[in-house]
Target: Sec-independent protein translocase protein TatC
Amino acid sequence: MSLGQHLIELRKRLMISALALVVGMVVAFIITDPIIRLITVPIVDVAASRGEDLNVEVMFTTVTGPFDLRIRIAFAIGILISAPIWLWQIWAFIMPGLTRKEVGYTAGFVGAAVPLFFAGTVVGWLVLPHVVEIMATFAPTGTSLFYDATYYYDFVFKFLLVVGVSFVLPVFLVALNVAGVMSGRGILKGWRVAVLVATLFAAVATPAADAVSMVMLAGILIVLFFAAAGVSMLFDRRKSKRQSSLLPPEAAG
Model:
């Protein structure tokens, strides 16, 4: 296609994706009440556990705060609801320019990255209550904790996003291996750095006092790193065998 045809095709794909996002946001806006109740469960648990010792509440500091929060939640959930449509639009736009092998690799990477991302968000959700509870223990007895609703939502959203993305990083290591940038042995040689980075990330993402959550998160990231190194070494071995089979008998001997 010409450049003009590519631009027309891109505009078409963007319009379909935008329409899907708007529909997803409308649906998500309707269910914001249960979502808000869900993300505030850790705060409710803290309030119940501390009783009269600590007053814990979520508050809105502006007139438009409740509406703004619902819009932000609707946007985030709308992206997830409409993901099958806009992901397909992206795929349909770039697929004609890919070879059959590139299509297979891309489908494999997406097929691995999406479940890993959601697995990461699930782990983040399991860790989140411990983070909120540990932080609340630093409040003196007889004081109050008033969480700004917008700030609290941003904290939850960013926390889940960061943990989810961290679970996808091993997929990028495998992609670098497939692209010939890094060998499997090269990835494995960096295990000390990977363990250090995973531990530091887990320490930053979780409270220092919550050692269980930190060890759990760091352990999962380390296991994913070694899995990526193992898969990369397997790809290298297959690539080496394939290259050996293409060599003439004299060269192979």
In short: Residues 107 and 146 are 46 Å apart (CA to CA). The first helix runs from residue 3 to 30. Residues 3-241 form one domain. The chain has a mean pLDDT of 81.
